[in-house]
Design goal:
- This protein is α+β, with helices and mostly antiparallel strands and 89 residues long.
- The protein has one domain (5-84): SH3 type barrels.
- The chain is built from two helices and five strands.
- Strand 2 and strand 3 (30-35) form a beta hairpin.
Length: 89
């Protein structure tokens, strides 16, 4: 399944250039490092849609909650997290 999952940016690591911007993002309590280079406007506290470890857009909190609630209702969250972070352990 290929789709983006909403998460909240908890922290943005200091990087020399935005091209390599990385942040710590929470997905309902699961925290992962995410590439933020496609959303240079993103800030701590923002919600982002993440696909394969890369944030692809900034979304508002209400949209993030709606999307996450829908995804949790599908009973496929384990598969979605595996797809989201193909190389994460």
């Amino acid at each position: 399944m290929c789709l983006a999952i909403p998460g909240k940016i908890l922290e943005i690591e200091n990087q020399i250039e935005n091209v390599f911007q990385v942040g710590k993002v929470s997905f309902s309590g699961v925290t992962k490092k995410v590439n933020l280079s496609l959303v240079p406007e993103a800030q701590v506290g923002d919600h982002v849609l993440v696909h394969v470890g890369v944030a692809v857009s900034v979304i508002d909190e209400e949209e993030a909650k709606k999307t996450l609630k829908f995804l949790q209702g599908t009973d496929d969250m384990d598969e979605l997290f595996n797809d989201l972070f193909l190389d994460a352990k």
